[in-house]
Amino acid sequence: MNCTDKDGQKHLGKVYLVGAGPGDPGLMTLKGKSLLECADVVIYDALVSPAILAMINPQAEQINAGKRMGRHSLLQEETTHLLMEKAQYHAIVVRLKGGDPFIFGRGGEEMAELVQAGITVEVVPGITSGIAAAAYAGIPLTHRLYSSSVTFVTGHEAAGKYKPSVNWQAIAHGSETIVIYMGIHNLPYIVEQLGTAGLSSETPIALVRWGTRPEQEELIGQLGTIVEQVEHTGFGAPAIAVIGQVVNMHSILSGCRPV
Ligand SMILES: C[S@@+](CC[C@H](N)C(=O)[O-])C[C@H]1O[C@@H](n2cnc3c(N)ncnc32)[C@H](O)[C@@H]1O
Q1: Where do the domains of the chain lie, and which CATH numbers do they carry?
Q2: Model confidence pLDDT, tens digit, residues 56-111
Q3: Which of 5, 81, 189, 247 has the greatest count of CB atoms below 10 A from its CB?
Q4: Number of CB atoms found within 10 A of residue 161's CB
Q5: Among this protein's residues, is 5 annotated catalytic?
Protein backbone atom coordinates (compact mmCIF):
# COMPACT_ATOMS: atom_id res chain seq x y z
CA MET A 1 0.00 0.00 0.00
CA ASN A 2 1.12 3.56 -0.71
CA CYS A 3 1.33 5.08 2.75
CA THR A 4 0.86 8.66 1.52
CA ASP A 5 -2.24 10.49 0.31
CA LYS A 6 -2.98 11.20 -3.39
CA ASP A 7 -0.72 14.27 -3.33
CA GLY A 8 2.21 12.16 -2.07
CA GLN A 9 2.02 13.78 1.38
CA LYS A 10 1.15 12.32 4.76
CA HIS A 11 -1.62 14.43 6.26
CA LEU A 12 -2.15 14.47 9.98
CA GLY A 13 -5.02 13.11 11.83
CA LYS A 14 -6.92 10.17 10.45
CA VAL A 15 -8.13 7.35 12.67
CA TYR A 16 -8.97 3.98 11.13
CA LEU A 17 -11.19 1.67 13.15
CA VAL A 18 -9.96 -1.68 11.85
CA GLY A 19 -11.45 -5.13 12.44
CA ALA A 20 -8.70 -7.68 13.10
CA GLY A 21 -10.95 -10.68 12.53
CA PRO A 22 -11.11 -13.63 14.93
CA GLY A 23 -7.43 -14.59 15.01
CA ASP A 24 -6.36 -16.51 11.90
CA PRO A 25 -4.14 -14.00 10.06
CA GLY A 26 -5.48 -15.29 6.75
CA LEU A 27 -8.87 -13.82 7.68
CA MET A 28 -7.55 -10.26 8.01
CA THR A 29 -8.82 -8.00 5.22
CA LEU A 30 -6.33 -6.71 2.64
CA LYS A 31 -7.29 -3.14 3.54
CA GLY A 32 -6.75 -3.73 7.25
CA LYS A 33 -3.36 -5.38 6.63
CA SER A 34 -2.19 -2.46 4.45
CA LEU A 35 -3.17 0.01 7.15
CA LEU A 36 -1.24 -1.94 9.80
CA GLU A 37 1.81 -1.86 7.53
CA CYS A 38 1.57 1.94 7.13
CA ALA A 39 0.40 2.86 10.62
CA ASP A 40 2.20 5.41 12.79
CA VAL A 41 0.30 4.36 15.91
CA VAL A 42 -1.74 1.22 16.63
CA ILE A 43 -3.96 0.97 19.69
CA TYR A 44 -5.15 -2.63 19.98
CA ASP A 45 -7.47 -4.73 22.10
CA ALA A 46 -6.68 -7.83 24.15
CA LEU A 47 -8.31 -10.32 21.81
CA VAL A 48 -6.24 -9.35 18.76
CA SER A 49 -4.09 -12.38 17.97
CA PRO A 50 -0.27 -12.27 18.02
CA ALA A 51 -0.28 -13.29 14.34
CA ILE A 52 -2.17 -10.09 13.47
CA LEU A 53 0.00 -7.92 15.73
CA ALA A 54 3.00 -9.25 13.81
CA MET A 55 1.69 -7.42 10.71
CA ILE A 56 2.14 -3.99 12.33
CA ASN A 57 4.77 -1.64 10.94
CA PRO A 58 7.77 -2.23 13.28
CA GLN A 59 8.30 1.57 13.47
CA ALA A 60 4.75 2.18 14.71
CA GLU A 61 3.99 2.99 18.31
CA GLN A 62 1.96 0.08 19.70
CA ILE A 63 -0.37 0.54 22.66
CA ASN A 64 -2.30 -2.27 24.33
CA ALA A 65 -5.70 -0.92 25.32
CA GLY A 66 -6.87 -4.46 26.00
CA LYS A 67 -9.72 -5.02 28.25
CA ARG A 68 -10.77 -8.41 29.49
CA MET A 69 -13.41 -9.24 32.12
CA GLY A 70 -12.51 -7.23 35.21
CA ARG A 71 -9.06 -6.22 33.94
CA HIS A 72 -9.04 -2.86 32.20
CA SER A 73 -5.72 -1.75 30.79
CA LEU A 74 -7.24 1.50 29.57
CA LEU A 75 -10.72 2.79 30.32
CA GLN A 76 -12.93 3.37 27.31
CA GLU A 77 -12.78 7.13 27.86
CA GLU A 78 -8.99 7.04 28.10
CA THR A 79 -8.77 5.08 24.85
CA THR A 80 -10.89 7.61 23.00
CA HIS A 81 -8.84 10.53 24.36
CA LEU A 82 -5.65 8.77 23.38
CA LEU A 83 -6.93 8.35 19.82
CA MET A 84 -7.78 12.05 19.65
CA GLU A 85 -4.36 12.98 20.98
CA LYS A 86 -2.46 10.67 18.62
CA ALA A 87 -4.44 11.97 15.64
CA GLN A 88 -3.09 15.48 16.33
CA TYR A 89 0.50 14.38 15.75
CA HIS A 90 0.32 11.38 13.40
CA ALA A 91 -1.06 10.63 9.96
CA ILE A 92 -2.31 7.06 10.31
CA VAL A 93 -3.70 6.06 13.68
CA VAL A 94 -5.19 2.56 13.74
CA ARG A 95 -7.64 1.46 16.39
CA LEU A 96 -7.44 -2.33 16.04
CA LYS A 97 -10.30 -4.37 17.42
CA GLY A 98 -10.95 -8.11 17.51
CA GLY A 99 -13.46 -9.45 15.00
CA ASP A 100 -15.57 -6.62 13.59
CA PRO A 101 -15.44 -3.20 15.29
CA PHE A 102 -19.21 -2.72 15.10
CA ILE A 103 -20.18 -6.12 16.52
CA PHE A 104 -20.07 -5.94 20.32
CA GLY A 105 -16.83 -4.00 20.01
CA ARG A 106 -17.92 -0.52 21.09
CA GLY A 107 -16.81 0.65 17.67
CA GLY A 108 -19.95 2.70 17.18
CA GLU A 109 -19.39 4.59 20.42
CA GLU A 110 -15.72 5.26 19.73
CA MET A 111 -16.38 6.39 16.18
CA ALA A 112 -19.19 8.73 17.23
CA GLU A 113 -16.99 10.36 19.89
CA LEU A 114 -14.20 10.89 17.35
CA VAL A 115 -16.58 12.35 14.78
CA GLN A 116 -18.03 14.69 17.42
CA ALA A 117 -14.49 15.80 18.28
CA GLY A 118 -13.90 16.70 14.62
CA ILE A 119 -11.48 13.83 13.91
CA THR A 120 -11.54 12.21 10.47
CA VAL A 121 -12.35 8.55 10.97
CA GLU A 122 -13.03 5.53 8.79
CA VAL A 123 -14.16 2.00 9.65
CA VAL A 124 -12.64 -1.11 8.09
CA PRO A 125 -14.91 -4.07 8.86
CA GLY A 126 -13.51 -7.40 10.02
CA ILE A 127 -14.84 -10.94 10.10
CA THR A 128 -16.75 -11.33 13.32
CA SER A 129 -15.95 -14.28 15.58
CA GLY A 130 -19.59 -15.38 15.72
CA ILE A 131 -19.44 -16.30 12.05
CA ALA A 132 -15.81 -17.39 11.73
CA ALA A 133 -15.47 -19.48 14.89
CA ALA A 134 -18.70 -21.30 14.04
CA ALA A 135 -17.52 -21.90 10.47
CA TYR A 136 -14.13 -23.29 11.58
CA ALA A 137 -16.04 -25.60 13.94
CA GLY A 138 -18.05 -26.93 11.00
CA ILE A 139 -21.25 -25.09 11.90
CA PRO A 140 -23.01 -23.12 9.13
CA LEU A 141 -25.22 -20.56 10.84
CA THR A 142 -27.93 -20.93 8.21
CA HIS A 143 -28.88 -24.06 6.30
CA ARG A 144 -31.82 -24.67 4.00
CA LEU A 145 -33.02 -27.61 6.12
CA TYR A 146 -32.39 -26.32 9.63
CA SER A 147 -32.24 -22.56 9.89
CA SER A 148 -33.30 -19.57 7.84
CA SER A 149 -32.50 -16.94 10.46
CA VAL A 150 -29.78 -16.06 12.93
CA THR A 151 -29.52 -13.73 15.92
CA PHE A 152 -26.30 -12.31 17.40
CA VAL A 153 -26.69 -11.43 21.05
CA THR A 154 -24.44 -10.47 23.96
CA GLY A 155 -24.46 -12.74 26.99
CA HIS A 156 -22.64 -10.18 29.07
CA GLU A 157 -25.74 -9.20 30.99
CA ALA A 158 -25.45 -9.72 34.73
CA ALA A 159 -28.04 -12.03 36.27
CA GLY A 160 -30.21 -10.15 38.75
CA LYS A 161 -29.70 -6.84 36.95
CA TYR A 162 -32.78 -4.67 37.50
CA LYS A 163 -33.65 -4.31 33.85
CA PRO A 164 -31.73 -6.64 31.57
CA SER A 165 -31.54 -5.25 28.09
CA VAL A 166 -31.49 -8.72 26.52
CA ASN A 167 -34.99 -10.12 26.19
CA TRP A 168 -34.22 -13.85 26.29
CA GLN A 169 -37.89 -14.70 25.77
CA ALA A 170 -37.82 -12.87 22.44
CA ILE A 171 -34.37 -14.20 21.53
CA ALA A 172 -35.50 -17.80 22.12
CA HIS A 173 -38.27 -17.48 19.54
CA GLY A 174 -36.84 -14.83 17.25
CA SER A 175 -34.69 -17.05 15.04
CA GLU A 176 -33.61 -20.63 14.50
CA THR A 177 -29.93 -20.03 15.23
CA ILE A 178 -28.70 -18.00 18.20
CA VAL A 179 -25.08 -16.88 18.48
CA ILE A 180 -24.06 -15.59 21.89
CA TYR A 181 -20.94 -13.51 22.47
CA MET A 182 -19.41 -13.12 25.94
CA GLY A 183 -21.84 -15.69 27.30
CA ILE A 184 -19.62 -18.20 29.10
CA HIS A 185 -19.67 -16.52 32.52
CA ASN A 186 -23.44 -16.16 32.43
CA LEU A 187 -24.15 -19.50 30.78
CA PRO A 188 -26.21 -20.99 33.67
CA TYR A 189 -28.44 -17.88 33.69
CA ILE A 190 -28.79 -17.80 29.89
CA VAL A 191 -29.62 -21.52 29.68
CA GLU A 192 -32.21 -21.10 32.42
CA GLN A 193 -33.77 -18.11 30.64
CA LEU A 194 -33.96 -19.94 27.30
CA GLY A 195 -35.48 -22.97 29.03
CA THR A 196 -38.07 -20.79 30.74
CA ALA A 197 -38.84 -19.27 27.34
CA GLY A 198 -39.68 -22.74 26.06
CA LEU A 199 -36.55 -24.03 24.33
CA SER A 200 -36.19 -27.79 24.76
CA SER A 201 -33.40 -29.07 27.00
CA GLU A 202 -32.38 -31.19 23.99
CA THR A 203 -31.66 -28.14 21.82
CA PRO A 204 -28.11 -28.54 20.44
CA ILE A 205 -25.48 -26.06 21.60
CA ALA A 206 -21.82 -25.62 20.69
CA LEU A 207 -19.22 -23.54 22.47
CA VAL A 208 -16.21 -22.52 20.38
CA ARG A 209 -13.20 -21.09 22.18
CA TRP A 210 -10.30 -19.23 20.55
CA GLY A 211 -12.04 -19.82 17.24
CA THR A 212 -9.86 -19.87 14.07
CA ARG A 213 -6.66 -19.93 16.12
CA PRO A 214 -4.41 -23.00 16.43
CA GLU A 215 -5.72 -23.48 19.98
CA GLN A 216 -9.41 -23.57 18.94
CA GLU A 217 -11.52 -25.85 21.18
CA GLU A 218 -15.13 -26.93 20.89
CA LEU A 219 -17.63 -28.25 23.41
CA ILE A 220 -20.79 -29.78 21.95
CA GLY A 221 -23.86 -30.58 24.01
CA GLN A 222 -27.48 -29.77 24.64
CA LEU A 223 -29.07 -26.96 26.63
CA GLY A 224 -29.83 -29.46 29.39
CA THR A 225 -26.24 -30.70 29.68
CA ILE A 226 -23.94 -27.85 28.71
CA VAL A 227 -23.59 -26.13 32.10
CA GLU A 228 -22.44 -29.37 33.70
CA GLN A 229 -20.09 -30.03 30.77
CA VAL A 230 -18.52 -26.59 31.21
CA GLU A 231 -18.07 -27.17 34.95
CA HIS A 232 -16.64 -30.62 34.31
CA THR A 233 -14.16 -29.57 31.61
CA GLY A 234 -13.31 -26.08 32.86
CA PHE A 235 -14.12 -24.72 29.39
CA GLY A 236 -13.65 -20.96 29.51
CA ALA A 237 -13.78 -17.65 27.65
CA PRO A 238 -13.26 -16.28 25.09
CA ALA A 239 -15.86 -18.34 23.32
CA ILE A 240 -19.02 -17.97 21.34
CA ALA A 241 -22.06 -20.18 21.86
CA VAL A 242 -24.14 -21.39 18.93
CA ILE A 243 -27.61 -22.71 19.68
CA GLY A 244 -29.92 -24.48 17.23
CA GLN A 245 -30.25 -27.47 14.91
CA VAL A 246 -27.35 -26.25 12.74
CA VAL A 247 -25.02 -27.40 15.54
CA ASN A 248 -25.70 -30.99 14.42
CA MET A 249 -23.75 -30.21 11.23
CA HIS A 250 -20.61 -30.18 13.41
CA SER A 251 -20.51 -33.99 13.38
CA ILE A 252 -20.32 -33.96 9.56
CA LEU A 253 -18.24 -30.85 8.85
CA SER A 254 -15.85 -30.36 11.76
CA GLY A 255 -13.18 -32.54 10.10
CA CYS A 256 -12.94 -29.97 7.29
CA ARG A 257 -11.40 -27.30 9.49
CA PRO A 258 -8.85 -25.22 7.61
CA VAL A 259 -5.24 -26.13 8.39
C1 LIG B 1 -16.06 -7.71 23.30
S2 LIG B 1 -16.61 -9.02 22.27
C3 LIG B 1 -15.87 -8.55 20.76
C4 LIG B 1 -16.45 -9.24 19.57
C5 LIG B 1 -15.73 -8.86 18.29
N6 LIG B 1 -15.94 -7.45 17.97
C7 LIG B 1 -16.15 -9.72 17.10
O8 LIG B 1 -16.73 -9.18 16.14
O9 LIG B 1 -15.87 -10.92 17.13
C10 LIG B 1 -15.58 -10.33 22.83
C11 LIG B 1 -16.24 -11.68 22.65
O12 LIG B 1 -16.18 -12.10 21.30
C13 LIG B 1 -16.06 -13.50 21.23
N14 LIG B 1 -14.80 -13.82 20.58
C15 LIG B 1 -13.87 -12.98 20.12
N16 LIG B 1 -12.88 -13.64 19.50
C17 LIG B 1 -13.21 -14.94 19.56
C18 LIG B 1 -12.61 -16.14 19.07
N19 LIG B 1 -11.47 -16.11 18.39
N20 LIG B 1 -13.25 -17.30 19.30
C21 LIG B 1 -14.41 -17.34 19.97
N22 LIG B 1 -15.01 -16.25 20.45
C23 LIG B 1 -14.42 -15.08 20.25
C24 LIG B 1 -16.12 -14.02 22.67
O25 LIG B 1 -17.47 -14.27 22.97
C26 LIG B 1 -15.60 -12.83 23.42
O27 LIG B 1 -16.00 -12.86 24.76
Answers
A1: 14-127 (3.40.1010.10), 130-254 (3.30.950.10)
A2: 999 999 999 875 545 556 777 888 999 999 999 999 999 999 999 999 999 999 99
A3: 247
A4: 9
A5: no
